[in-house]
Amino acid sequence: MRYSLVEEMRETLNSIETQLAAFCQSIEAAQLMAARVFVLPPILKGEELTPTPIISVEQHVGRQARQLALQHFSHLYLQQQAEQQSTRSATRLPGVICIKVSAEEKRKLIALSTTINQAKQLFQQLITVDTGLPAAARFPFVHQHFPGLLTLNTYRTLNVYPSVDSVNFGWANKHVIKRLNQHDVIEMLEKSLNAGRGRAPWSREEWAEKVNEELRLIKQLPSDCRLKIKRPVKVQPIARLWQSTQQKQTQVACPNPLIITCLEGETLPELGSLPNYDEENIIHRHKPDAHPATLIIPRLWLWKED
C-alpha cells in the first residue's frame, strides 16, 4: 500500500462532499416541476442478511420529496442516521425529481454530476483495489481513517436525464450467475484452504476439514461438468424511463432519486408510483426456463447443471 494512499482518499472524499453540496444547491435553486420519492423501511443492525419478503413503501411528493432527496444525496456518514440502523447496508430512496432548467443550467448540472461520479469511482477504486486489502479488512481500515463513513452510500452514482415521456417504478428480484468449470472451483477452494484461517462457527482445523470435503466432492465430478454460482440478490427498486420519439424504454436501478431536466417548452413526464413489494405476489413478465440443477455446495451457492 503506497504511503500517499490515505491522503489521496481524503482529498477525493473532500472533493465529493464539496461538489455534492453544489449539486444539491443547483437542484434546490431550480424551478421544481414535480417530485416523488418512496421511503423504504430501514435495515437494522444484524438484519443485513435477513430475507425481506414484504417491503412497505411510504410515498412523499413535492417540496418534501425534494428535501428528502437532497438529504439522501448528502447522506455519507452513520452519524446522519438512527443509531440502530445498519452501517453495512446502504440506504435506498427510489424516486424522481423533475426540474425546469435553461440549456446552460442543464449542461452545468450534467457536467457536475459526471465529475462527482468520476470522483466516486476513483474513491471506490482506492479502497477496493489500491489498498490491496481483502474485503473483510476494508471495513475496519476505512473506519480507522474515516470514522462513520458509509462507503456504499459514497460509491453510489448520481443519475441526471433529459426530459422523457414517463417514469415508472417497480422491483427487480434477480440472481447473480457466474459459470465455472471444475478447475475454477478447485482453484477457489484451494485458495481458501491455503489461507489457513478459520471461519465462525468453525475452528481453523474444522474449517480446513470442511473445505477438504468440498474439494473431494468437486474432484469426483466429471471434468466436463457444468457448474455455476447462482446467488440470489436482494430485491431492489428500479425505474423505467420511456421516450416516445425513440420508441425506447430504459430500465435502471433506482437506489437514488433520478433527476429529470426539462427545458422551456418540454412537458412534465408522467410519473408512476412504486408499489409495496410482496414476494408471494410477484408477476413475471418473462421468466426463461432454467436448466435443472443440483445445489452441491450451499455456502457458495454452487450448482451442478443436470
Automatic annotation (TrEMBL):
<keyword id="KW-0235">DNA replication</keyword>
<dbReference type="Pfam" id="PF05472">
    <property type="entry name" value="Ter"/>
</dbReference>
<keyword id="KW-0238">DNA-binding</keyword>
<protein>
    <recommendedName>
        <fullName>DNA replication terminus site-binding protein</fullName>
    </recommendedName>
</protein>
<dbReference type="InterPro" id="IPR036381">
    <property type="entry name" value="Tus_dom1"/>
</dbReference>
<keyword id="KW-0963">Cytoplasm</keyword>
<dbReference type="InterPro" id="IPR008865">
    <property type="entry name" value="DNA_replication_term_site-bd"/>
</dbReference>
<dbReference type="InterPro" id="IPR036384">
    <property type="entry name" value="Tus_sf"/>
</dbReference>
